[in-house]
Amino acid sequence: MIEIDISRARSFVKERAYNDSYEKAKQAFEQVKQRNGAGSEWLGWRTLLSDPNDAILEQLDSLATAIREDADVFIVCGIGGSYLGARAVIDALSPFFGTDGPEILYAGNQMSGQYLDELIGYLEEPNAEGESKSVYLNVISKSGTTLETALSFRILRNWMEDRFDDISERIVCTTSEEGGALNELIKKHGFPKFIIPDDVGGRFSVLTPVGLLPIAVAGIDIRSLFYEAVSKFEALEEDPEPVLEYAAVKHALYEQGKAIDLFTTFEPQLNALSGWLQQLLGESEGKENQGMFPAKATYSTDLHSLGQFVQEGPRNMMETFIQVDSMNEQVEVQAEDEDHDGLNYLEGRSFHDINSRALEGTLQAHHEGGVPCVVLTLDKLNAQHIGEFIYLYELLTAVYCYCLDVNPFNQPGVEFYKKEMYQLLGKQ
Ligand SMILES: O=P(O)(O)OC[C@H]1O[C@](O)(CO)[C@@H](O)[C@@H]1O
After folding, report:
1. Is 81 in the pocket of ligand 1 (CB under 6 A)?
2. 117 and 162: one domain?
3. Which residues in the chain land under pLDDT 70?
4. According to the model, what pLDDT value does residue 323 have?
5. How many Å lie between the centroid of ligand 1 and the Cα of residue 219?
6. Which CATH number fits the domain that encloses residue 146?
7. What letters, b where the CB count within 10 A reaches 16 and e where it falls short, cover 207-235?
């Protein structure tokens, strides 16, 4: 279960402004449902859930099981929506240290040559048994032409070709059904391929093979993740109220001049989930001179860097706390005979309990300091709740963007840097 508490945000908004935004959110939800808003040809992230394809989950599961049995390392090569969702779920649900399956590494999400150099150096080191590492790679690119991903893939593919005889079994491609350079390589090498549906954009694609294959290779139950998103879809079709209220308050705050939505969590393993949210909202709402900048911070670490700014800087931000109610941890504070560090007052308390009080205190302080706060609470960190979270935010994004009257599903602005870069690189 995820609870959304908007009370500490709504108190900053006048009743009339909230009601106006709420009416907009209602109409926006109808546009999503009736498929008559801008970019409605991109609503495939809903069809996936209204008409689930269990055969694909089966296929992904069995390939992932085979890879888990043989791989020491699994590389996810992609950028933006082609890796952020997988990373968000994997980081949220995997142990901090060590794993019983392959190590998941990432490439193709930047252009650091040093990173690639060091990555290859690491792949060439023997595994824990002193043997050569068994490496698998999943290249993920809807367009099949994104420079960061394509370049890293070229280097890693060539390295794998030199190293292994069976690269057509070690490299899996996730791309569009047709077109793009990646489809040419698939034809040439016979790499196994998963298709990204045409009507699902990158940032809405985590519940397609884009996210699900890496997530399954990480040993996470993709059925629980996927089917809980399906349940959330059904629940919100029936009763969209939580999303309407959330979108309304966010929109009313935007209208009131809030320019930043700071996503914060006190659980470091959710840092990448905030990164996924950043792209989902940022690429969807930031257009036609509109939108709130989606920022992220991980507390309490960042309370010691950004906390001052949030508490007393310009009052132009709202904050969204992502909270987890119960954690599986047993670290408890023990009393010491001589209380030199003065911590005996915390005797018997768990770190989670102390961390939760830090969250409560921060929420209170920021709210009192003039920051409207939304609080999202997940009872636990598990695949079900993360699945629910994913659909909740996908729908919120669409509804809220329609309130702003922007097309949530395109990203024309991203092309500008590419044009300049390609010109400088001399691409014809
Ligand atoms: O999957 P692709 O086509 O490589 O694109 C990766 C990312 O790049 C963008 O298209 C922006 O350029 C994102 O929207 C997308 O998630």
Report:
1. yes
2. yes
3. none
4. 96
5. 26
6. 3.40.50.10490
7. bbbbbbbbbbbbbbbbbebbbbbbebbee
Give me the amino acid identity at 402.
Y
Q: Which residues pair with 140 in a beta bridge?
A: 174
Is the domain of 21 the same as that of 67? no
Q: Do both 233 and 155 map to the same domain? A: no
- Ligand 1 pocket residue status of 285, Cβ below 6 Å: no
**70-127: per-residue pLDDT in tens?**
999 999 999 999 999 999 999 999 999 988 899 999 999 999 999 999 999 999 999 9
- Number of structural domains (the chain) is 2
> Annotated active-site positions, please?
283, 418
The parent domain of residue 120 ranges over 48-220
CA of 135 to the centre of ligand 1 (A): 25
**Residue 148 Cβ < 6 Å to ligand 1:** no
282 lines ligand 1 (CB under 6 A): no
Q: What percent of the chain has pLDDT over 70?
A: 100
**Ligand 1 center to residue 190 CA distance, Å?**
24
pLDDT at 330: 83
Q: Which residues contact 283 (CB under 8 A, 6 or more apart)?
A: 80, 203, 411, 414
Of 201, 220, 239, which residue is a domain's last? 220
Residues 169 and 64 in one domain: yes
- pTM of this structure: 0.97
* Same domain for 216 and 229: no
